[in-house]
Amino acid sequence: MEGLPPEALTQVAAYFQVLSEPTRLQILNLLRTGERNVGEIAQACGFTAANVSRHLSLLTQHGLVARESRGTAAYYRIADESIYALCDLVCGNIARQLERQAAGRQAFVQATPKAPRSRPR
């Protein structure tokens, strides 16, 4: 991103904003196994076809998903496989952060002296 003008950074931010919605991430993850139509995606995700269509429209506008009409159905597939490398990179980073946090909590628990238990009277 170094040296990008503000207009380009706006486009980068919009791209990441599309990825900030869990439903769209779920759709992308589902399309990892192959192309599907709206009904198949809606059924697999548990969302309405209208909701899935709205998300697919945004994903298509930003070049993440490609649409192909076949008869009365539209089929969607991943347009850029590099999205999975990006998502895997982010997921790995989050996993490492959670591991560090868990280790920090464990160290705190081990270092904290236990309070004596009071005896019931």
UniProtKB/TrEMBL annotation:
InterPro entries: ArsR-like_HTH (IPR011991), HTH_ArsR_DNA-bd_dom (IPR001845), HTH_MetalResp_TranReg (IPR051081), WH-like_DNA-bd_sf (IPR036388), WH_DNA-bd_sf (IPR036390). This is Helix-turn-helix transcriptional regulator. One of its GO terms (molecular function) is DNA-binding transcription factor activity. Residues 4-98 form the HTH arsR-type domain. The keyword Transferase does not apply. Keywords: Arsenical resistance, DNA-binding, Transcription, Transcription regulation. Transmembrane segments: none annotated. NCBIfam families: HTH_metalloreg. It holds the Pfam family HTH_5. Signal peptide: none annotated. GO terms for biological process: response to arsenic-containing substance.
